[in-house]
Design goal:
By secondary structure, the protein is of the alpha/beta class. The chain folds into 2 domains: 2-123 and 311-325, Nucleotidyltransferase, domain 5, CATH 3.30.420.40; 140-306, ATPase, nucleotide binding domain (Nucleotidyltransferase, domain 5), CATH 3.30.420.40. 35% of the residues lie in helices and 21% in strands. It is built from 9 helices and 13 strands. It has helices spanning 38-55, 94-98, 111-122, 182-185, 187-204, 228-236, 240-264, 280-293, 314-321, and strands spanning 2-8, 12-19, 24-31, 63-70, 73-74, 79-81, 91-93, 106-110, 131-136, 140-146, 149-150, 268-273, 303-306. The strands form 3 sheets. It has a 5-stranded mixed β-sheet. Helix 3 (111-122) packs across helix 9 (314-321), helix 5 runs antiparallel to helix 7 (240-264) and helix 6 (228-236) packs across helix 7 (240-264).
Length: 326
Amino acid sequence: MYSIGIDIGGTNTDMGLVREDGTITERRRSKTNQYTDFSLFVKDLSQQIQSMIQVAHVGLSEVEGIGIGAPNGNFYTGCVEKAMNLSMHGVLNFAKEMSLYLPLPVVLSNDANAAAYGEYVYGGAKGMKNFIMITLGTGMGSGIVIDGRLLLGATGAAGELGHAIVVPNGRQCSCGLKGCAEAYVSSRGFKQTYSELRAEYDSLHKPSDENYHPGWIDHKRSLADIHPKDIGDAANAGDPLAIRTFEIMADYLGIALANAVAFSSPEAIFLMGGPTQVGEPLLRPLRKSFEQHLLYSFKGSCSIYKSQLEANDVAILGAAALIKMQ
């Protein structure tokens, strides 16, 4: 059997035809931000799905259904509800609209929930009944599986660990609150931390000073031109400012994860997203912070891992795995 996985992002929509063993046999990509007409967007997606099925010589009866991971996706309604980063606005009823073109079940949830279920069906969480998936990037997303079921809550939006407060009256978060974990561990927050550290360093050292060390990232470069990957590369090369940036990020993330363990008691926490690719400069201080803030009765019961799914596959596999929730 096969399933269709669709990952809807603000810029691109990626989709794939996924075999039962997790192999993606066909892929397609659309530019999400070219669409303002929701009906036209769904019509074009449906045509691409039909194309993948035909090219793979798969009968429609061999396809279990369509899984969609999307920002602000609601599992209960099948709708994307007022997603700020999409060019199509309002409440978008994907389940209803796609049924006009394809006689297949449609299951939709937010992208972090999809990533969690993808790890559960195809990745390192296979066989686990209790775990958390953390996605790091533009924001901090989380999907929580308890007793083998994805935690959805009354509204379908449970699991917003990125908006747990880790610093009372701290940094302004894009959600409107202050001190959210996301304000410190997202790409924007991560970059802000580096900026603050660099400004402090430059105020104490001048290029003419003997002990001035500009670091592995050229301090003449505009901050707008410096990306999290640059900071990660510098940390792995030994840049003290970059290393300290990861330590600060890890401290706040460790607090958030320790709090999450206190209410859900998972076997493991999986991490995915750009910052995780740096490896030990993040993972080493993260494990230290996590253990430091973890309730004693949970010590030794939960491990932190990187996602075992390929970075290029995880979004499609996560979406495809949602169909297993029917």
